[in-house]
Predict the structure.
Amino acid sequence: MSQDIATSPPLAQDRVPVQGLCPRCGSAALAAYPVFSEGGWFDVVKCQGCLHSVSRERGPLLGALRLLADQI
Amino acid sequence: MSTVEISGVARLRDISEDEFHAAYGADRFTSSVLRSRLQYVVEHMSTAFMREAFSPIIRDWYDFACTISGPAEQDYPMAVVSNSLTPFLGTMADALRNTVVEYGVDRLQPGDVLICNDPYRGGRHVNDVLFIRPVFVDGRIVSFVNMCAHQLDMGGTVPGGFSATKQNVFENGLVIPPMLLWSKDEPVRSTFSLIFDNTRWGALLLPDFKSMLEQLKLGERLILENIARYGLEAYLGTLVYATDTSAERMRDAIALIPDGDYEGSALIDADGTDASVEYRVHVTVRKRGSSVEVDLSGTSAQARTSINAGVLDAKTAVGVALTMMLDPKVPFTSGTWRSIDLVAPPGSLVTALPPDGPTMMFWESSGALIAAIFEALNPVLGERGVGGDYGSTNTHNSHGLRADGTLWTSATQAGGEHGPWGATRHGDGDSYTVLYNLNNLDPATETIEHDSPVVMLRKGHAIDTGGPGTHRGGAANVRDTLWLTDASHWLSPFRTKEPSGVGANGGRPGPNGAMWFFPPRDDGSAPSGLVGFSDEEYAASEPIAGMLNIQTKKLDPQGVYHHFASRPVWKTSPNTVLRAMTNGGGGWGNPFEREPAKVLRDVRDEYVSVEGAARDYGVVVVGDPALDPEGLRVDEHATAALRKGR
Ligand SMILES: [Zn+2]
């Protein structure tokens, strides 16, 4: 019995660099990306050093899922 | 919404009575009493539904949950939950918001029941239908009372649904978008027909739907009685207080993790297509101060068949894992996730998307996420680490015809659905319970044998299968069932390649399990007694799944992987025996420091063999556990010598 086995490829969430300094720790490593938390999806800018949320805007209701019915 | 600053918030117990009243519309005592009264509401609804339900998966499995959530102005906080299935409860806050917002909160009327079962809008799988009833005071929605319940069938290609072999949402079953099942307390016939025209066993579903309406009405009435007694301001404040309590307690729990980045992973053996693709759930837990970010980057792309989980299930799993590891007393409300951000690349095994990422066996993949978080955090938690569980419900789903031609069906009753937990700093792991990712009942043997032509021959602990440790992991469960008619089976174990029962604080993992069929005797009759564990008996078996020696067909971690869906349907003739052996639970602490008296007791009780006691624990036990269990003793000199040499 031959067992030629692959692993389904890994995916990654992109983090887009954002200009500015973290007001909490002074780090310049700010990045924008979506997160899922209490209250649903948020588009955040967070400090990658201390995880401080520089901004949190409400994201799409269903995250990455788009409904054709929204185009009616 | 602007900047959210969590640290610096005053602790609930430290704020003044005036501050408390301003925040929550009542004094502390009233808020606590009201919260407890709402807990009673969801438990009363649950008890009533359990008593009335016709469907065996409700009646015998407790496959449902009840919650109370707040109104839109509060952003739908899920404040109170029943003591039942965590995979339901964890999704129900977001599922409620997504369902109500899409339907249109302003369109809801008193007496409506809004439903949705779409896994991508609300989590779980299509069988789990969410029922939402708005609660009105003076023409305004002040709350939602909710139930989520597994329906025995939701259409699709496999009766009952439990199968890893379905390739897309169309094969998976009927998807119900947000729509009314009752409108102003009148049934919406078109919605009922949509369901009954696309599913099996509607005669079981209909009375359960009616019962759920009555439980929702009960919940609504009890909520209104509480509002009449304590006032609307106190009621609404209590919903916020309940979630703030969870948030504060989880924040304290997160503080137990040292700041840092921690990685872990867990493997799903294969999907339902073939054995050529494995799936890995990968997690990075980043912890700073009171915040945690759980990043799923590195997780495999979604599977080709129905073993995926949706992102709501991934979020649930993160909440379950952190609650189990850090503070099991955190109330499981929407506030649990306040300090947790999930970073979730879409289209992965645990963030699957339609139409090609069906989610039927979702708890298996989201359970692997729990295991990955355990692997990430156990090394840094040290003594607070927790051993892993049996990892998979090894679900069995089958049907056939009785002699009189009637259909029987057996779902989630006769595989390896129940098994062990890992050990903790408090003691040994339990040997017969439910996955960390579930919280359900174990169907009674009498019920299983009454409902299907099956005899439960064996339901016991397998020897030398608890992960060795100062505290031993729970033992694997081995279950043998004798099937009396021709039968078609679907079998779904997913975690047989890498141990799911990982060790903690120096403890060792439990071994992995497998599944076999033992055919009837040559004349077609049943085995004369119990099927044992001898070489001859295994040689005559038909392996189904697991890492097995190709010659002996016995468990062998270095052996060959056998794929659970190498046959799309496993067809058996009458008097075939199915054996399901679960994985063992993980041990906690160095096994060579386990008290010899406990090892002696384990040998007497056949959790550990005489050979295993010496090999895994360095304890020399003298005597015969089978013929003279009370005459067993520890050879202390030989034990000291053996442990010293280690
Ligand atoms: Zn910072």
